[in-house]
């Protein structure tokens, strides 16, 4: 029936062929009808067949075909779901990959633009400044060398002058020695005196010359010392300038090397980025082509779904994970529909999971365990673990062993109702005092009357122990209900105002008031804190309108995919159901009561969703298009 996904559908020219479900279906019915006589034995063929028998036979064949059609339809639905899911997953994968390519493309384009915008201007300016500084230092060095040469020449001249002056000084001193020697050599004192007188002028002149020569020597030494100091200073500047020039040369070399490396890096990086851009462009075109093909195939599947199922969306069975723990939640147990739904949910889950579930309930039923056991045994299912608010409140470590009995009283007149088997007790004036209701020959309730009106009811558990007491006013309205532990002590009193409970008084083992809650929500919330629920491995199932289910779904710590709501009367309220599913896209799995509810959702849903019917008889109901219904 399905074309291969690889083939491109021609949606404009597509027509219904002989391979359509309706055509195959008609062929099967025609073939079955034509084969009817051949399937009968020779003996039966000779027997007369009435018109009614023929009709019944035809109806049986149509019923068989209807079940075959239902199975094939479900198989086709599963096939289409799998095919559509694969295409959706592939589309998501390709779309995510395309987004990644687009981000990579943007980042690469930005990097490429950034690389291309880079240049060496700043480094070149820096190099120019270094070169200028180097030229300046070299000019300083040249000046310092000229100064050094000048100072060296002056120093040499002063050295030469110093040597000449020192020679003059030595000559002067020698002349003095010569004169002094000639005087010492004279033996005649008069001649010595005369000689001394004659040489006095020469000696004075020698001393004067010596003083002048010494002064010149001191001046030259001072100049030499000054020139040496200046020469040392110039040499220091020359050394500093040489160091500065060498440092500037090193800086210049580093800048030139950086400019070269940066240029090579830009060339290589630009080439690499351009190759990457080209690769991204090719990959982008390839993925877009694949995505286009997936979209075309998805459009074909969606059109096929709409043509076959008259809806753009599919509904499949709710998937139950056997590794999870399933909790069925219920706060109300007041009517047959609520009881049936609770047991149907248990039955549905356990038949699928092949293991017991846990029932968490906050309603009062003195024989809840017995009712659950009876229902489970009749369906041969696992006995669920029942966790009940009132069972836990009423349990006692020391329960009374005295079951309730009706005492003998000579003042009473006892009668038995024929239909209900209840016991009616009157006084001697024929005034009704009480009625005793039984469940399997055990007292279940005792109703007390005054002036022919009920004013109190005692409710007993399966063991015959007092479980609850109801108090009524003159208008027969429930005003108070108290609950007792199995040891006889009071544990909870509910006060009513009209039909509304406005106080939940909780008592401890000593009968002292422990809590006073205004609403049942508060009592339940208090009790839930005592339960240990592994929310990570749990799935919670319950009526979407149920109080307990609402309280747990409002827990922000539990993820929305941990809940499976039961939507009641879905067929009658299909608009409200669709609005609920449209507004809450986090609801992925739902339960409904009957197959008709499932069919109504399937034909009206605005998105794909998983739906299962919990109805006990749903497996026997036909789920057919109008053309196949009798």
Automatic annotation (TrEMBL):
<protein>
    <submittedName>
        <fullName>Uncharacterized protein</fullName>
    </submittedName>
</protein>
<feature type="region of interest" description="Disordered">
    <location>
        <begin position="116"/>
        <end position="145"/>
    </location>
</feature>
<feature type="region of interest" description="Disordered">
    <location>
        <begin position="165"/>
        <end position="184"/>
    </location>
</feature>
<feature type="region of interest" description="Disordered">
    <location>
        <begin position="1"/>
        <end position="51"/>
    </location>
</feature>
<feature type="compositionally biased region" description="Polar residues">
    <location>
        <begin position="29"/>
        <end position="39"/>
    </location>
</feature>
<feature type="compositionally biased region" description="Basic and acidic residues">
    <location>
        <begin position="1"/>
        <end position="15"/>
    </location>
</feature>
<feature type="compositionally biased region" description="Basic and acidic residues">
    <location>
        <begin position="121"/>
        <end position="145"/>
    </location>
</feature>
């Amino acid at each position: 029936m399905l074309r291969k996904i690889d083939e491109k559908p021609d949606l404009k020219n597509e027509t219904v062929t002989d391979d359509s479900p309706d055509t195959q279906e008609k062929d099967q019915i025609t073939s079955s009808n034509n084969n009817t006589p051949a399937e009968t034995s020779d003996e039966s063929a000779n027997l007369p067949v009435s018109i009614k028998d023929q009709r019944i036979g035809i109806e049986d064949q149509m019923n068989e075909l209807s079940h075959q059609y239902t199975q094939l339809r479900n198989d086709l639905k599963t096939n289409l779901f799998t095919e559509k899911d694969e295409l959706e997953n592939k589309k998501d994968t390709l779309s995510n990959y395309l987004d990644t390519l687009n981000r990579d493309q943007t980042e690469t384009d930005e990097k490429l633009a950034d690389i291309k915008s880079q240049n060496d201007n700043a480094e070149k300016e820096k190099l120019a400044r270094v070169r200028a500084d180097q030229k300046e230092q070299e000019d300083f060095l040249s000046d310092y060398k000229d100064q050094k040469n000048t100072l060296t020449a002056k120093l040499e001249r002063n050295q030469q002058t110093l040597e000449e002056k020192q020679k003059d000084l030595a000559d002067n001193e020698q002349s003095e020695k010569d004169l002094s020697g000639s005087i010492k050599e004279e033996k005649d004192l008069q001649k010595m005196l005369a000689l001394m007188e004659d040489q006095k002028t020469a000696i004075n002149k020698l001393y004067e010359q010596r003083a002048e020569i010494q002064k010149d020597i001191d001046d030259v030494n001072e100049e030499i010392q000054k020139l040496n100091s200046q020469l040392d200073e110039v040499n220091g500047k020359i050394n500093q300038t040489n160091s500065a020039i060498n440092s500037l040369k090193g800086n210049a070399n580093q800048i030139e090397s950086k400019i070269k490396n940066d240029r090579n890096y830009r060339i290589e990086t630009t080439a690499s980025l351009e190759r990457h851009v080209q690769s991204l462009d090719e990959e982008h075109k390839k993925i877009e082509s694949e995505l286009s093909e997936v979209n075309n195939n998805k459009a074909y599947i969606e059109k096929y779904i709409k043509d076959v199922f008259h809806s753009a969306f599919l509904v499949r069975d709710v998937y139950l994970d056997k590794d999870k723990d399933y909790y069925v939640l219920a706060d109300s147990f007041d009517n047959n529909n609520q009881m049936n739904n609770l047991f149907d949910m248990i039955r549905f889950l356990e038949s699928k999971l092949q293991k017991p579930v846990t029932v968490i309930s906050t309603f009062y039923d003195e024989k809840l365990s017995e009712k659950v056991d009876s229902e489970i045994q009749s369906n041969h299912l696992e006995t669920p673990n029942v966790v009940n608010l009132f069972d836990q409140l009423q349990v006692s470590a020391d329960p009374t062993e005295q079951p309730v009995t009706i005492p003998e009283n000579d003042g009473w007149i006892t009668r038995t109702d024929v239909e209900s088997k209840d016991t009616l007790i009157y006084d001697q004036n024929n005034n009704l005092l009480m009625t005793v209701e039984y469940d399997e020959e055990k007292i279940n309730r005792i109703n007390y009357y005054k002036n022919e009106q009920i004013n109190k009811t005692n409710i007993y558990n399966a063991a015959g122990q007092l479980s609850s007491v109801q108090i009524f006013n003159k208008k027969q309205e429930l005003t108070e209900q108290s609950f007792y532990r199995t040891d006889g002590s009071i544990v909870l009193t509910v006060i009513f105002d009209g039909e509304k409970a406005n106080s939940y008084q909780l008592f401890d083992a000593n009968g002292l008031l422990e809590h006073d809650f205004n609403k049942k929500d508060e009592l339940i919330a208090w009790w839930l804190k005592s339960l240990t629920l592994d929310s990570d491995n749990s799935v919670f199932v319950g009526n979407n309108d149920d109080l307990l289910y609402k309280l747990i779904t409002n827990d922000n710590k539990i993820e929305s995919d941990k809940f499976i709501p039961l939507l009641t009367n879905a067929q009658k309220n299909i608009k409200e159901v669709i609005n609920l599913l449209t507004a809450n896209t986090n609801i992925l799995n739902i339960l409904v009561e009957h197959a008709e509810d499932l069919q109504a959702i399937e034909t009206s849903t605005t998105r794909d969703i998983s739906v299962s019917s919990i109805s006990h008889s749903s497996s026997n109901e036909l789920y057919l298009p109008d053309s196949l219904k009798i």
